[in-house]
Write a structure and sequence with these properties.
The protein is mainly α. The chain contains three helices and no strands. Helix 2 packs across helix 3 (139-152). The longest helix is centred in the middle third of the chain and has 121 residues, at 14-134. The radius of gyration is 59 Å and the shape is rod-shaped. It starts with a helix and ends with a helix.
């Protein structure tokens, strides 16, 4: 249509030349406006798509943060529980250690007493053995004394 208008006004003269330039500029401006509008529509579509992507990414990040906070709370709870169990086990081990120390002391006292109780008769037996071997002529007196002291105990 623009070319038809240019052909009609082609013969009019210099005014027609000016008019033709204005029409040409108007047509070129119209094409540029249409291209700009198409580009703006394209940009709006891209912005909308990108906005959707970013909104989804933000939602995913928020979900991840919420999940991590939940896991962190669970971890904190488990740490407290573990610390309580460690304290309980430490108390149990301390009690067992104290009991073992007491038993060890009792054992040492028992061994000491048994040792003392066994040494006295053994020493006496060694003495009689020595006397019997040293003075065989008095062995009958020693044996009699031994039986008498044994009967008294």
């Amino acid at each position: 249509m623009g070319l038809l208008i240019l052909e009609v006004y082609d013969g009019i003269g210099s005014t027609s030349e000016t008019l033709r330039l204005h029409i040409s500029n108007a047509l070129q401006g119209s094409r540029l406006l249409q291209q700009i509008q198409e580009y703006a529509t394209s940009l709006e579509t891209r912005v909308a798509e990108r906005t959707t992507e970013l909104t989804e990414a933000i939602q995913n990040l928020e979900d991840e943060i919420a999940h991590r906070k939940q896991v962190q709370g669970q971890l904190h709870h488990l740490n407290e529980e573990l610390e309580q169990r460690v304290l309980q086990r430490t108390e149990e081990l301390q009690a067992a250690y104290d009991r073992l120390k007491a038993l060890s002391k009792e054992k040492d006292e028992f061994v000491s007493n048994v040792s003392h109780e066994l040494r006295t008769p053994i020493t006496n037996m060694k003495l009689y053995h020595y006397l019997l071997n040293a003075r065989p002529d008095k062995s009958e007196d020693y044996l009699c004394l031994l039986y008498t002291s044994d009967a008294a105990d």
